[in-house]
Amino acid sequence: MSTVDEIHPAEEIPRNWIACKDCDLLLERVDTPVGEKALCPRCENPLYQRRELGIEHTLALALTGLLLFIPANLLPVMSLQLVGQETSTTFYQGSLVLFQEGLYWTALLVFSASVIIPLCKLLLMLFVSGSLYVKYYSPLLPYALRYYHHVDEWGMLEVYMLAVLVAVVKLKGMASVIPDIGLYCFIALLLVTTLMSSLLDEDCFWQKIEQGLQGRSE
Amino acid sequence: MNSVITARNMGLIRCETCGKLARDEDCDDYQEHCPRCHGHMHMRVTNSLSRTWALLITAAVLYIPANVLPIMTVTYFGSGTPDTIMSGIILLLQIGSYPVAAIIFIASILVPLLKMIALLILLLSVQFGWKLDDRQRTRMYRAVELVGRWSMLDMFVIALLVALVNYGSIAHIVSGPGATAFGTVVVLTMLAATSFDARLIWDREEGND
Question: Which residues of B fall within a CB distance of 8 Å from A145?
């Protein structure tokens, strides 16, 4: 990482210039080995990290995630046995019950963080990586990746997973809880989406989109 | 002290979404769109401090009902007592689930509280130009951004319990007003963290050059 020390009155901003997200320091991009993080020399914020995973991997993960999404939400997650009665619930039903009980705000929060946003993330990423894979540069690509970036933080599958474990412990004294097929699908979905978002090279995606769209307009 | 060259010194704006640099000219830095992702570009987040203050104060006010009001009531064979966040943790301790009690305590009480204190320190230090270590403050900001989402844990637990335990008179669980307040606190603190512009921490240093 080297700091920019010459001020070029250039017409065009050099392609290898970047600025730190958290302290605005202007830097020149240097090539780092794959997997290594480039840190800002001033505030130690990670600037970029080149990933080994390419577009096809992201595409594969998005597709797998979407396939898993269906059973994870529609198949029973766990069944509860209490005084001879057995009930089973799906994640999808779980959010609906909250709506029926009139807890609209809670239901909306839970439903969007655990169902809607993860689904949107998968669909957007499928579109972006799929388009880049077949080299179809739609003018919608920048919007899709931008929305992905904005909703990213609000998808909380991993928090939801921990909540399932806590709920099981809380119910231990009251009823017996038997995990069902939906839960295993959910764990797989969680792994896939976590891999997808943590291994995503957003920077590389942006550059590809930019180059592709420029090539199209020329 | 050698002068630090920031994007702003060079008349450049960094897009908050995609990281693209663009020249800040013939535009009043507000309505400009990023040439790459078409998002709005700002030299600094508009009214970052006032916005963060507003969100933080609202969150702090709601933190009180979130902790005082019951978050849920478990009715088991006709008898049920409303539980607040804290009494739920104590209950978990009584049945011996220490790890779970610790997780809930950290996620529902410690994290929101520390997060609000951290944001308060950041806001006050930027507003009044306190001379604190900039690097440490940035680290603190990043920690706030990172852990915020985990506070949603209790909301999810309540949602799951309400949905799962529905056996009419034998056993059922309903959520209380505390849960609504708590969920709002978490969302507000997350929004407050997003609206705070970390670059403000470093801006003062450049002014001293």
Answer: 18, 37
This model's pTM is above 0.90: no
Domain ranges of chain A: 1-50, 55-217
Q: List chain B pLDDT tens, one digit each, 209 residues.
A: 446 788 888 778 888 888 888 877 645 545 578 888 888 888 888 889 999 999 999 999 999 999 999 998 888 777 778 889 999 899 889 888 899 999 999 999 999 999 999 999 999 999 988 888 888 999 999 999 989 889 999 989 988 888 888 777 777 888 888 999 999 999 999 999 999 988 888 887 655 44
Is residue B64 within 8 angstroms of chain A, CB to CB?
no
Contacts of A85 (CB under 8 A, 6+ apart): B167, B170
Q: Is B17 on the interface with A (CB under 8 A)?
A: yes
- Mean pLDDT along residues A162-185: 86
Tokens encoding A16: 């290898």
Smallest CA–CA distance, residue B18 to chain A, in Å, is 7
Does the distance separating the beta carbons of B14 and A23 come in below 8 Å?
A: no
Q: Does B33 touch chain A (CB under 8 A)?
A: no
For residues A120 and A66, give the distance between their C-alpha atoms in angstroms, rounded to a whole number.
10
Kindly determine whether residue A150 and residue B17, on different chains, have CB atoms separated by under 8 Å.
yes
CATH for B47-207 (2.10.10, 1.10.10, 3.40.50, 1.20.140): 1.20.140
B1 at A interface, C-beta within 8 A: no
Q: Which residues in chain B have their CB less than 8 angstroms from residue A162's CB?
A: 103, 150, 153
CB neighbour class for A156 (10 Å; exposed up to 12, middle 13-18, buried from 19): buried
CB contact under 8 Å between A106 and B37, yes or no, is no
Q: Would you report the helix, strand and coil content of chain A in percent, each value rounded to 5?
A: 55, 15, 30
Residue with tokens 């407050």: B192
Cβ-Cβ contacts under 8 Å, B48 against chain A: none
Q: What is the ipTM of this complex?
A: 0.85
Burial B173-209 (b: 16+ CB within 10 A, else e): bbbbebbbbbbbbbbbbbbbbbbbbbbbbbbeebeee
The whole-angstrom distance between residue B196's C-alpha and the CA centroid of its chain comes to 10
Residue A4: other Cβ atoms inside 10 A: 20
Q: Measured between CA atoms, how close is B87 to chain A, in angstroms?
A: 13
Q: Where are the domains of chain B?
A: 1-43, 47-207
At the topology level of CATH, where does A55-217 sit?
A: Butyryl-CoA Dehydrogenase, subunit A; domain 3 (1.20.140)
Contact criterion met (CB < 8 Å) for A170 and B92: yes
